[in-house]
Amino acid sequence: MLSSLAWLMRTQSNPSLYIHFPWCVKKCPYCDFNSHTAINPDYQQYTQKLLADFDFLEHKFPFKKIKSIFFGGGTPSLCPPQLIGEILSTLASKGMISSETEITLESNPGTIDKEHIDGFLSAGVNRLSIGVQSFQDHLLNKIGRIHNGKMAYDMCQYALGRGFRSVNIDLMYGLITQTPNEALLDVKTALSIGAGHLSFYELTIEPNTYFYKYKPTLPEDKTLSEIESLCHNEIFHHMDQYEISAFCRDDTFCIHNLNYWNYGDYLGIGAGAHGKITTDDGIIRLNAEKNPKVFQLLKPEKTFKSHQINAKQEAFEFALNRWRLSAPIHQDQLNMLSTDAKKHFITHTHKAIKDELIINQNGTFHKTRLGKNYHNCLISYYL
């Protein structure tokens, strides 16, 4: 099997595919994704709509293969495994995927059991991402999760023994009343189970969420800094950091997310899904109808709205994504940008170099320690 980075480079000209499932058992109070609480949605009808939309995009923007597939949400693990299998078998019959294609499914420990996990594996999913957030019941209760710590632990442990190519554990820090030692315990628990990939990111309060309207008391900056220091030091003993919030061992990078961060192309199907496609005329952004009920009634040609971005937007999007990675930016990587976007990027990069957020080493741009510590400040240079 090819290493993750080798597969990414070999399939660079091909898009990834994001498939959105908008339904949840209960919407989390911090979630600003396009997710909706629904009782017994018609997954069979929704699956047929997804496949019809894929056919439309396949003909509108011809390509030969799909680099990676990511079932996200919402809670895609609510969808019956046989329907996930139907989607994947249809794509395989078109020659779009192979045994090397990374296929990820996001899951909530409160919505899966051992039978579900085996079903998704049999359907063709080879990478499982488990939204644990914490292994501690009192912290899970405060952020409105529907599972408990034991459920999360048991599902992670079972999945890791079933033969997935990779299992990712999602952890949040900066939770309500969370102490540095509690955050460290979650990290140690995830590592002790044997996860090959860890997503470790801070709880943030986003507009249009319950927590935005009814703001909880979150840890102060001093506590957050201590959490990050303690937890990162522990993770670094076991894993390499390749992105701001992503860590892995044995090169089990997430190909799908690497494609985003390297500013690769991707298609999005499902209610509210987004896409980015590079054409001879420039970069096209696609947005599908967000409302699930309306979405399912629309013909494919009416489902998507599209617009072309300008050079300044292109340079900003590239910086926003690419600077998330730990790896430096080589000059030849800028050739993927349009001529004007490349000029904008270099101009703003020189300003960041002047302020010591970036250094130029033989034509390769590296973030300095200051640039790493003040990531949002660095990105603001490209606005």
Q: Characteristics of this structure?
A:
383 residues; three-stranded antiparallel β-sheet; nine-stranded mixed β-sheet; alpha/beta; Arc Repressor Mutant, subunit A; TIM Barrel; 16 helices
Structure overview:
- The structure is a single chain.
- The chain is α/β, with parallel strands linked by helices and 383 residues long.
- The chain folds into two domains: 4-260, Aldolase class I (TIM Barrel), CATH 3.20.20.70; 311-383, Orthogonal Bundle (Arc Repressor Mutant, subunit A), CATH 1.10.10.
- It is built from 16 helices and 17 strands.
- The chain has helices at residues 4-10, 43-60, 81-93, 114-123, 137-142, 149-160, 180-193, 210-213, 221-236, 255-261, 292-297, 300-303, 311-322, 339-354, 369-373, 375-380, and strands at residues 16-21, 23-24, 36-37, 68-73, 102-107, 127-133, 166-173, 197-202, 240-243, 246-248, 266-269, 274-279, 282-288, 304-308, 329-330, 358-361, 364-367.
- Strands 9-10-8-7-6-5-4-1-11 form a nine-stranded mixed β-sheet, sandwiched between helices.
- The longest helix is centred in the first third of the chain and has 18 residues, at 43-60.
- The chain is globular.
- The two termini are 40 Å apart.
